[in-house]
Amino acid sequence: MYHPSTSAVQQVAGTAAGVLEHRPAGRAGDTAPETVHFQRCTWCGTAMYHRLLCPVCQGSDLRTERSEGVGTVRHSTVVHRNTPAARNVSLIEMAEGFVIRGRVMGPPIGIHSGDRVRLSTAKDPVRGEPVFQLIDEPYRAWT
User: Fold this and answer.
1) Each residue of 64-90: pLDDT tens digit?
2) CB 13 within 8 A of CB 21
């Protein structure tokens, strides 16, 4: 049975390879302990999420940056599988230009393309996906 040393575990825990990383909550007014990290190609400037090579220029020189956590819902669908209640799975286009899959809090039928969202402090405990919340309530006509 393999037991990694404590130094190896600490190195892996500090990398930005994961979806969410914990920020220290020591700053005043800092209420969001989670952030999303993404890569940006140093050659062409393309922002991407969790890639080994740039999809535009195939460059491997990628730098890791932290997202502000604000984005727009590009597509949302309701899933009834493997869960006791319906949930939504959404593709979120972040302000930095990359797309990430996550869940938006709220009634699944009330989430539409074009809604603005912000990264929440909550994290999906089962799937480990980022959880977003609506920034402003949409004012839609009854259809």
Assistant:
1) 999 999 999 999 988 887 777 777 889
2) no
Give 23's DSSP letter. Answer: P
3-state SS assignment for residue 8: helix
The whole model's pTM is what? 0.66
Please name which of 135, 71, 69, 64 lies closest in space to residue 106, comparing C-alpha atoms.
135
Tokens 């195939």 found at: 58
Concatenated DSSP letters of 89-140 = EEEEEETTS-EEEEEESS-GGG--TT-EEEEEEEE-TTT--EEEEESS----
Residue 65 token pair? 């940056």
